[in-house]
Design a protein that fits this description.
Length: 195
Amino acid sequence: MFPLMVAYSVSSPPSHLVVGTMALVGGDVYHQTLLLLLWELKEVSIEFGLCEIISKQTIRIRPKDGTPWFPNVSALEALLPTAMIDHSVDCIYQELPPWEETLNGARERYRYVILALADKYPNENLLLVTHGEGVGVSVTAFMEETEIDDVEFCAYSQLQRKICLKDSRVPTAEPFTVLTDIGGSTGIRFSKILT
């Protein structure tokens, strides 16, 4: 229910971003697929900002105040090979968003976290595992006048941007280009908004 991982690698080309949905359920086919996908990656960490929308729309029963309802981060990390876990990463979100967030608030959160992670690791490829709404935002936030028609289970998007080093050796990033096909071959279908 809450796949919220950040995985990053140093494989080329740099500054490549893939945002996708996958289930993180111990022992099943989705868990095995995720582990195979992550096997080539350098490091993995948990990012609370990539969690599901915290609202009645997605979580039917509101968590009781003070009652732990989210899996312990250590329990989530135990599903992955120990050597992959990077405990030195400072999360963009230190905890889950508060109950109850609006749809637009969640969309802004996804956009912010995607950009913040890309800026934090400008020379690395990133694989962000999130939920359908987050995958949709990864397209609409970086491709003007676009609306999402459907996001299938295990859908993904691809974005890329050019990173330049100026005289000060500070990386400067160009805007993201969405590489995802409009036809839905990656499990996400979107269209241009007609004006």
